[in-house]
Amino acid sequence: MTGFEPAFAVLQPGEGIGSAETYLPADPSKVLWGRLPRGGDRPVAELEPGQSVVVDTISHEGILEDQGSDPIGWFGRHGVDRDHILTDTADLAAARRREPGAGPHVVTGPIAVRGARPGDLLAVRIDELTMRAPYGIVSTRHQRGVLAGRHGFDGDYGQFCSVTGRAGQWYGEMPIRPGQPHTARFPLDPFFGLIGVATATGERVSSIPPGAHGGNIDIRRLTAGATLFLPVQVPDALFYLGDPHFAQGNGEVALTALEAPLRARLTVDLIPAATVRAGLGRSVGPFAVAQGFVVPTGLDPDLNRALENCVGNAIEMLVALFDADPQQAYLYLSAATDFTVSQAVDQVRGVHGEIRIADFAHRSGSDFARRVLGDRVALGDRRTNSPEGGPAAVERDSNESDGGR
């Protein structure tokens, strides 16, 4: 690609960080590559419940082996000047190599949350997301897309996409046919594909499959303003984030989303195990409150079983949050709730539901429901920034929860 014109300057490590903010860069000493934290790992930062943190993340695209492990060379061939390449991306590629058998994702963390214990829920509120570079990559490889094995769609290939701004909205733009001027333009709505807590395992597990720990759940509702609730597996939770996306279609069918680096401002809090047990009849795995929805998840290597798990978890959430009868909840879900394939390409398939909070005039009086839904449902803006302000990727009113605060 030639003639690339950046829509904004890259956001380098440390730029724009206030002196009072807790900041975690994505330098080589602060990240894992392709593996997730486990219990007993040393944290790279520590937080108290209720505290906020600014975290930088980088994308694995442009630094993988099939791309030459050289982001300066790889992005340079697509017209990106050296000063528009993130230094932390270049530093990681120069300092580290991904171990054989590991996943592709670069994970910033782990971050200890003091006092977290197994049985608690960690509430991670995504306060703000900022795009760190004006470009990203979509790719398929390793025969892991939905059409793996079908002639013409196998192989390792991808597409560099530029970011453009228009009428207060950010877009990704890519050629729709090689060698031709025709392009497709699609709106950006950044989120993290991978947010989780450490596993209670002897070895660090691959970053690819999601699970009870969260991890690579790829739910595109987790934009700024959302709160993700994760069942704590080990003392101090040891949470982390990575796999930053600028946009993704539900299903993520080729293998990746539009992969590109993000900075996040997050607030973490805890819902104690006793409150969780009093509110929920059983564990429901990771779930979220986002954009006016309660978002249950279902995970399983079999997509049909993942859907079944998600419906069961959704019923449990309706009982816990709105005092619903289970059979009536089942009927309500059939009439009013979408169940969507989050991703079908990460070994363990993911399905998520979208339950509208506004549908329910009554809420449970439990402390669990209050902590999940908040004392009120407020109208709020969701905003994703470029480093220099620029047009907001999203700015709209939505029913948002107060999360775990």
TrEMBL record:
Listed InterPro entries: FmdA_AmdA
Taxonomy, superkingdom: Bacteria
Gene3D superfamilies from the UniProt entry: Acetamidase/Formamidase-like domains (3.10.28.20)
One GO molecular-function entry: hydrolase activity, acting on carbon-nitrogen (but not peptide) bonds, in linear amides
Record-linked SUPFAM superfamilies: Acetamidase/Formamidase-like
Biased composition (Basic and acidic residues): 394-405
Chain segments carrying region Disordered: 379-405
Protein name (Swiss-Prot/TrEMBL): Acetamidase
Lineage of source species: Bacteria, Bacillati, Actinomycetota, Actinomycetes, Mycobacteriales
